[in-house]
Write a structure and sequence with these properties.
This protein has about 220 residues and is α+β, with helices and mostly antiparallel strands. The chain has four helices and twelve strands; from the N terminus they run E-H-E-E-H-E-E-E-E-H-E-E-E-E-E-H. A six-stranded mixed β-barrel has the order 1-3-2-6-5-4. Strands 9-7-10 form a three-stranded mixed β-sheet, with no helix packed on it. The mean pLDDT is about 85.
């Protein structure tokens, strides 16, 4: 688990107009939830936040939050709950933070990291299909992994990795009712396309042969 520090200021006013002015001034509106409060309106420094999100594992890191301008109290341990971005611009619009207790088990989403190139992909032109790109885990905050690693090097076409096949760190659990699929290696789609093209070609040849026979029969009738 990695730890980063982030500072915030208390936000007294809310609304779309206020949020636009904040972003223009280099501040990002945010809300802090958890640990007994319904939501504390804050602002975060845009540059500091962008630098944080650019680091590996930022969304699974426990952040040390310092609230200035009347926030008071000790520094808080928080996780990034949600990041709202502009639909087509690389701009952060809003962020939700979740205050946590370091001695309480929490549920978080962790990305899946693929290691290696599957044998079926490397040698047989197969395709690695990922059914899930992140997993929900439960653990204490200080042991949240940055990601869950799956080595696919030895996978051949037709091989499947299920949730119960992966190795997880000690103290981490993955809540699940069924042993669902995470990824699989499938045969290349081009083989299916080639078969369809071959069948279409054979059907076309058969039609041409039938048309030729009809024309021959017609010529014989005329000669008679």
């Amino acid at each position: 688990m990695s730890t980063n520090k982030i500072t915030a200021e208390v936000r007294e006013t809310t609304g779309k107009g206020v949020a636009r002015k904040l972003r223009a001034a280099g501040r990002i509106p945010a809300v802090l939830y958890g640990q007994g409060h319904d939501g504390v309106s804050l602002t975060l420094d845009s540059y500091e936040l962008s630098q944080l999100l650019a680091t590996a594992g930022a969304k699974t890191s426990v952040l040390e939050l310092e609230v200035k301008d009347g926030g008071g109290g000790p520094r808080r341990n928080v996780l990034i709950k949600e990041v709202q971005k502009h639909p087509y611009k690389d701009i952060i619009l809003h962020m939700d933070l979740l205050e946590i207790a370091m001695d309480e088990v929490i549920s978080v989403m962790v990305p899946i990291e693929i290691v290696g190139i599957a044998k079926g992909v490397r040698l047989d032109d197969g395709i690695l299909e990922m059914k899930r790109r992140e997993l929900e885990i439960e653990c204490l905050p200080h042991i949240i992994p940055d990601s869950l690693t799956i080595d696919v090097t030895d996978l051949e076409i037709g091989d499947v990795i299920h949730v119960e096949d992966i190795e997880i760190p000690e103290g981490v659990t993955i809540p699940h009712d069924v042993n669902f699929t995470l990824l699989t290696v499938v045969a290349p789609a081009v083989e299916v396309e080639e078969e369809e093209e071959l069948e279409e070609g054979e059907e076309a040849e058969e039609r041409e042969g039938e048309d030729g026979e009809k024309e021959s029969d017609g010529e014989e009738d005329e000669e008679e």
